[in-house]
Amino acid sequence: MLNTFFVTDPAPELLLNGTYDATLVALSVLVAVIASFFTLIQIDFAEQNQNSRINRLAKFGGAVAMAGGIWSMHFIGMLAFSLCVEVDYDPWLTAASIFPAFLGCWVSFDLITRPNVTLSVKGLAAVILGAGIGTMHYSGMEAMQLGPMLGYDPTLFGLSIIVAVSLAFIAIQTRSKLRDYVSDNNISIVRCLGALALGASVSGMHYTGMQAAKFVSDSPIISQEMQDQHTQSLALFIAAVSMIISALSALIHTASKYRSVAADKAANESRLAAILETAVDGIITINGDGIIKSCNPLVERILGWSEGETLGRNVAVFLPKEAQTKVSFNSAYLEQFKGVGRDIKALHKHGHLVPIRLGIGEVELKDQSAFYVGFITDLTAQKQMEKALIEQETRYRTLLNNMPGVAFRCRIDSEWTMSFVSPIVEQLTGYRAEEFISGQVHFASLIIEDDKSLTHDVVEQALQCGKASYSQEYRILHKSGHTKWVLDKGSFEYDQAGKVEGIAGVLLDISERKNMEDELRAAKSIAESAAASKQAFLANMSHEIRTPMNAILGFSEVLRESELKPDQSKHVNTILTSAKALLHLLNDILDSAKLDQGKLDLIENDFCISELLDNVVSTFWYQAKKKGLKLELTMSHSLHQTYHGASDRLRQVLVNLLGNAIKFTAQGSVELRVESSHDDYVLFKIADTGIGIANDRLDSIFNPFEQADESMSRRFGGTGLGTTISRQLVELMGGKIWAHSELGKGSTFYFTVPLKKIAAFTRAQDVHVELPPLNILVADDIQQNTELLSLLLEKQGHSIEVAGDGLEAIEKAKAQQYDLILMDIHMPGCDGLEATRAIKAYERENRQQETPVIALTASVLGEDRAAAKAAGMAAFASKPVVIEDLTRTIAETLNINIAHTAIGVRQTSNKQLINRARAINLWGSEARFLKELARFWEGKREEVIALFAHEGQFTNDVLQSIHTIKGVAGNLALETLFALLEQIERKKEIDERLRAKMALIIEKLDDVVGLSDEEVVTNALSEGDVFLFKQNLPQVKEMIDEAQVEDDVLDALLESAPLTYRSQVEALKHALDDFEFERAEEILAQLMSTDV
């Protein structure tokens, strides 16, 4: 097919060459240019019109005009071309050839009339337009019917398409660029230039395509006359078609223009209606005679008249009735209101007057009479606002005149010039407000000379720091001559440029407050002096009381360790117990005082919480047992093993609360439950079944020296400080304490403290520290103290020398080099601090090795500890002396190595099966201890055996059983059993090694207790004991009847009591110790009614 379409090498003798008629050629180009011009008119119209339907119609008209021009130009150009052969045209193909041109024009015009057309879109439009022109041309050529064969030169064929596209792009780009630089008034120039370029594109493509056409003849030549005759008839046809197309395009343009004008008119009317409907003012139109022609809805809203009621009436209807007869609303009168807004009163339809602002403007219409537009603004809200502002200003002025402070506004200058000041300034300064505003008196002249620079400095500093306000206090001189204190609080005022204009503020008379502050400062000075005296008193009281207590406790311990008769041992224990109780009371009072002053410091350390709890519970175990109470410790498994916190203070709180619970509980139980709370807090719960507390007394039990009932101090003893100190300590540790109670049923105390969880920590073992023999100087002004220390330290193998005061200590330290000096701080004359400083200075001067000095005092004040350290003392030991603590302090001071071990890895190899010394110390006698051991082993042996045979998970019941047995084992000094149970509780597993150890412990305990020997048990519950027991009961009854308490009788009853009745006898003894004779009588009746 391409072989017939393209002719690449035709025979020259067969080619037919045509000729052109210059007139028709020019006409064809002119037709193309004119069609392009009318097309551009349609395109411009389409671009300017926003209505989509009119836009599409305009583009359609432009495409029709351009396609008709292309088609007409082509066939006129064909008529201008003459061949020496007969040429005819297929009418249907000729007519159809216009459609490619129409489609190309329609699509390309749609592309270039879109907003924001890019260069690539313009190029695409040029390609589509060129393709349409080319398709029309070559389809029109195919309509030719002639004898010679028609073919095309490939090169010229392609060139014709390129020419069409290139010239079309030039035409589109030329029009686009020229529109950017030519105003709308010169748009015709742009259209002409664009038409020339577009017409050139059509013509250039046509005549380039004609050059590409090759007519190859293979028949005789037909006469020229036939061709000419046919050409004339075809020219008429083309002319007619061209006229029809032009008329159609003009008709389309006219219709588009009409629809556009109609749409614009409708849009303008809609906009005007919308403006009138939404205007915030009433709008009326008036002719030169004052007749209302129209009004918007706002007129009805403002004046009550609807549009139908006002049309055709004179505008005077809006005037008050008295003015309607005086004023004639005509052109002359209306001219007065032109361009000027006036506030007048208008008559509402309902008869009341409405304040309005009326503005009138004239509309100049050609060949018509005068026409006016009136704008009515409702001033009702504005007038109401003005009235409210006036009333508000009156109220503010009244407030300013009556407020205690002086309101002012001033400039920032050296005189503080007042632009406004409230009248009450006369009360403050003695001068009237008018005198300040007029400049007769300047406020700066009233400020005391010493304070003037301060006032300026405060304001300047506030401005430099960018603050919006300032506040200062200074003194002013009243007109009468006396001084007043003023509080000046002001805010800065700025202009629109951000420059400070002045200050607005208030002046307050604070003279009374200043006088009160002076009085308070004087009172504070007196209070501080009293507090210092109180502190000095506490220090002296601590020293004076602890000093004899040191001797009492120390020598009692020495006596107890010596060979004593039973009665003597009993009396010594009583002395020790009473002295420790007195020391505990003293510590409570001192702790309370320090807590009130905020001078009690917390010493935090790492500790094992289970050991701390076991230690606390063990302390009260025997006391609870004597009263027949069940003492339980329950630890949640959510608890960590080791914590960091103030363990000593935590122990103190637990001792206070647990001691109270046991003290106020006659029967039943006391439970200590510990579990993890939120975050790092630990919750402690102490519940008892005691006497309870009334609800109205719950809030006061944490107050100093208060108990739930005044009779309690007489019945149970105590100062009422325990709960107070507990609350203060818990709050100091960052926790919270509270209580719930029911009278007669018991109480529950709760407290939480924050404790930080830690891993296993290292600490010193609880072992006896062995010191090498040392040469020690003891300096103390109390002979009892030096004797006690000498006795205790000499028993350890040390050489002791004694100094009675500081001066003697200095002389002995100069005469001899000691390994250690124990120095009391408070001594008459030269105290321990001065003596230590003198000794240290002497050693430095003589280049001697420094002798460690340990401060030894009964003081509990932190200031004394700080002073001791500042004086050069190496350590601090408190009185009363605890020899174990003192020994450890000496070892640490002299850097004597003490073995350390981590919590959780303590070995049991050094533990004893039974620590008899500790057991006898705890139970008072070996016989009593053996009875309790037998009772424990009889009741718990099978449970222990079952426990060590346990396999599988450690449930809560199993762990509770382990903890219970462990606690009793600790109270019975069963060290190896306690250590094994502690290890199992921590690891929550039992291996074969532990089972083997346990088997050995069970076997040894069987031997000790004698469960395998019935004779031992029988001896423990012998008839002789029963006989003595029965014989002692009447004596106890006689003692109760006489309301007397004899310790010898009670001890004899307790020693002879069989194990079965042991708990009842202990409860009886405890009731008598508390002077509860009725309770004691009930227990005794039960014992005497039993068949022993």
Main traits of this protein?
5-stranded antiparallel β-sheet, alpha+beta, Beta-Lactamase, 1092 residues, 7 domains
Coarse morphology: elongated
Helix-strand category: alpha+beta
Report the helical percentage. Answer: 55-70%
Provide the domain count: 7
Q: What are the low-pLDDT stretches, counting only 5+ consecutive residues below 50?
A: 220-229, 710-719, 899-910, 1011-1024
The number of distinct β-strands equals: 32
- Roughly what is the average pLDDT, rounded to an integer? 76
Which quaternary structure do these chains form? single chain
Taking all Cα atoms into account, the compactness measure Rg is 60 Å
Largest sheet: 5 strands, antiparallel
Q: How far is the N terminus from the C terminus?
A: 140 Å
Strand order of the largest sheet: 9-8-12-11-10
Strand content: 15-25%
Number of helices: 38
Catalytic activity: ATP + protein L-histidine = ADP + protein N-phospho-L-histidine
Transmembrane segments: 22-45, 57-80, 92-112, 119-138, 150-172, 234-252
Organism: Pseudoalteromonas piscicida
EC number: 2.7.13.3
Give the topology.
Blueprint: H1 2-5, E1 15-16, E2 19-20, H2 22-48, H3 52-80, E3 81-82, E4 87-89, H4 91-96, H5 98-112, H6 119-142, E5 144-146, E6 149-152, H7 154-181, H8 187-212, E7 213-216, H9 224-278, E8 282-287, E9 292-295, H10 297-303, H11 307-310, H12 321-324, H13 331-334, E10 342-347, E11 353-363, E12 371-378, H14 380-402, E13 406-410, E14 418-421, H15 425-429, H16 433-437, H17 449-464, E15 469-477, E16 483-494, E17 500-509, H18 511-561, H19 566-597, E18 605-608, H20 609-626, E19 630-635, E20 642-645, H21 647-663, E21 669-676, E22 681-688, H22 710-715, H23 722-732, E23 736-742, E24 746-754, E25 756-757, E26 762-764, E27 775-779, H24 783-794, E28 799-803, H25 806-815, E29 820-824, H26 832-845, E30 853-857, H27 862-871, E31 875-878, H28 883-893, E32 900-902, H29 916-923, H30 926-948, H31 956-971, H32 975-987, H33 992-1009, H34 1014-1020, H35 1023-1041, H36 1047-1056, H37 1062-1073, H38 1077-1089
Parallel strand pairs: 19-21, 27-28, 27-29, 29-30, 30-31
Antiparallel strand pairs: 1-7, 2-3, 4-5, 6-7, 8-9, 8-12, 10-11, 11-12, 13-14, 13-17, 15-16, 16-17, 18-20, 20-25, 21-22, 22-24, 23-24, 26-32
